[in-house]
Amino acid sequence: MTPLLTVEDLRVSFPTRTGTVDAVRGVSFSLGRERLGIVGESGSGKSQTGRAIMGLTPNQADVRAKKLLFGDMDLLAMPPKERRLLRGKRLAMILQDPKYSLNPVMTIGLQIVETLKTHERISSKDARARVLQMLEAVQINDPERVFDLYPHEVSGGMGQRAMIAMMLVCGPDLLIADEPTSALDVTVQLEVLAILDKLVAERGMGLIFVSHDLRLVSTFCDRVLVMYAGRVVEELSSANLDQAQHPYTQGLLNCLPHIGSHRHPLPVLERQKEWAE
Amino acid sequence: MAPMDTSAVTRRPQRRVPAFASALMRFIVMAATTLLGLLAVTFFIGRVIPIDPALAIVGDRAPQHVVERIRLELGLDLPLYQQFWIYLKQVASGDFGTSVLTTNPVLTDILRVFPATIELATVGTIIGAVLGIPLGVLAAVKRGSIADQVVRVIGLVGYSVPIFWLGLLALVLFYAKLGWVAYPGRMDIVYEYTFTPTTGFYLVDAIWQGEWDVVRDLFRHIILPGALLGYFSLAYISRMTRSFMLNELSQEYIVAARAKGLSEARIIWFHALRNAAVPLVTVIALSYAGLLEGSVLTETIFAWPGLGLYITNSLQNADMNAVLGGTVVIGAVFVGINLLSDLLYRTLDPRTRSR
């Protein structure tokens, strides 16, 4: 069986005035209908990996890969229009902060309808019904009312649920969640994660969960890729997190506070040059 | 799972109508204050400049007793605040006094010249917006390309070239050499006797009356000054559109729109432009208001009988009633345009509504 997504030697670089910046330097993994976490610090290339898969890197970025296959479709070789029509339909992405990722001058309902209408021939009435269903699926109690609200009229948690609805309404096979809860309050984070968890399980989607929160990712995902300076330094199953081999991962885990232990101050990660190779 | 938080959603304001009424009240108070201030400033400036209104009427050689009589008639012997009070009362009843130059009531004069300016300014703004917005969008989308550079140069020329020079050049080329457009003025003299405008907006009147010959002639007259003013507002509008669009296109909701699989065209013209339209309204309104003040140079070169020409002439002839009247009209126009852009703002940006 072909995996849902095959990534081999993915490289993303940006030309700048002072030379090229290599954001992603040879990332390889494959993904079935499972949950893969990508963790790493700021600038480690985790977000750019997600965006490269979506085809949403900025224009000036140079994206190359030996293989970038979605099912058996070559994402880099296909015409831009076909690739665009995959987005939202079979590949979808949730962004970090609903305050910025929803269009401020469109009602939430219409923004979700727009996804549907881009990919399906559907009457406005049916689209509305589907959207209301979807809003219910992300546990919004009064979808009729929320449909007509503007993004600034809802809370962050509600906005992120609307975002999830907008991206899942066409039933994609693969969802890339780029720090989907980092902008939310801790209590709301758990609610949104629970909703995401349920929908991914119900619909059997593949999920790439990009985050800087190692603990969160390990509880939520089956497998974890640890990225550092544009490379995957370690791949672990979530259950075996404590068996991490790479000193960077060990260092990260070592920095986590533990209940019952009294370590003051917490250790600081000492970066080694050779990690970046 | 516990019931989801409905309280997290801010309620839409239930009292829509009262909110609107209070906004209206605020606006009326603001408009009245602005106009009063404008009247006061113009009035007192008019009185402190070394021009004797009585002398302006009777001329330098009039005998002293005539000058004195006129001075009394005008109430110039009264203290300034009383004069201002009388003026205010007259203005409130629509009486701006009589123009020394034309001997008509100032209001009559203004009602005659202002439509000409409005017509020209409207044509100019339409040209500026219809061409300037797409050019600005193009420059933003193709940032750094040849197209962007071309738009930049077009804008730069529009900013920096003096209008009287460009106007004369255009006249030489399009009227004298090519004969594509009509000579300066609002319409051919032939039609002065056959065409009777009803509102003063000649184009509208002619279309309304079905006088297509006149419409054609009016168009041949207005197109050059209109295009010229349009070019200047285009320069401004396209630059502003470009920067607003660049700002919108870098927002996260654009990434989200791409992630939904929307076409570039829809992202640019619907999502980004719809958001950029909010500040653009102000830009276009300001540029329109600027043209409505009466573009003195353009009106002079093209012999356009508008407000700019009228006020300039009055000023040169020390016709203070006319100058004051014209200034108040311009002030009122500014206030009106502000109201209009405010209302447009409210329809375009939902965030300004619920406050």
Using brief descriptors, characterize the structure shown.
heterodimer, A: 277 residues, alpha/beta, Rossmann fold, six-stranded mixed β-sheet, five-stranded antiparallel β-sheet, 10 helices, 11 strands, 35% helix, B: 355 residues, mainly alpha, MetI-like fold, 2 domains
Task: Give a brief outline of the structure.
The complex is a heterodimer of chains A (277) and B (355). Chain A is α/β, with parallel strands linked by helices and 277 residues long.
Helix and strand layout, with pairings?
The complex is a heterodimer of chains A (277) and B (355).
Chain A: E1 5-16, E2 19-31, E3 35-39, H1 46-54, E4 62-64, E5 67-70, E6 73-74, H2 80-86, E7 91-94, H3 98-101, H4 108-119, H5 124-137, H6 143-147, H7 156-168, E8 174-178, H8 186-203, E9 206-211, H9 214-220, E10 223-228, E11 231-237, H10 247-255
Parallel strand pairs in A: 3-9, 3-10, 7-8, 8-9
Antiparallel strand pairs in A: 1-2, 1-4, 1-5, 5-6, 10-11
Chain B: H1 16-48, H2 53-58, H3 64-73, H4 80-92, H5 106-141, H6 146-160, H7 163-177, H8 189-194, H9 202-209, H10 212-249, H11 252-259, H12 264-292, H13 296-301, H14 307-316, H15 320-348
Task: Report on the architecture of this protein.
The complex is a heterodimer of chains A (277) and B (355). Chain A has 10 helices and 11 strands. The mean pLDDT of chain A is 89. The radius of gyration of chain A is 19 Å and the shape is globular. In chain A, strand 5 (67-70) and strand 6 form a beta hairpin. Chain A has a single domain (5-275), classed as P-loop containing nucleotide triphosphate hydrolases (Rossmann fold, 3-Layer(aba) Sandwich), CATH 3.40.50.300. With 277 residues, chain A is α/β, with parallel strands linked by helices. Chain B has 2 domains: 23-92, no CATH class; 107-352, MetI-like (MetI-like fold, Orthogonal Bundle). Chain B is built from 15 helices and no strands. In chain B, helix 5 (106-141) packs antiparallel against helix 12 (264-292), helix 7 (163-177) packs across helix 10 and helix 10 crosses helix 12 (264-292). Chain B is globular. The relative contact order of chain B is 0.13. The chains are: A alpha/beta (277), B mainly alpha (355). The A-B interface holds A 54, 56, 84-89, 92-93, 95-97, 100-106, 114-115, 118-119, 139-142, 145-146, 149-150, 152-155, 157-158, 163, 166-167, 191, 194 and B 1, 3-6, 8-10, 12, 251-253, 255-263, 271, 274-275, 278, 348-351, 354.
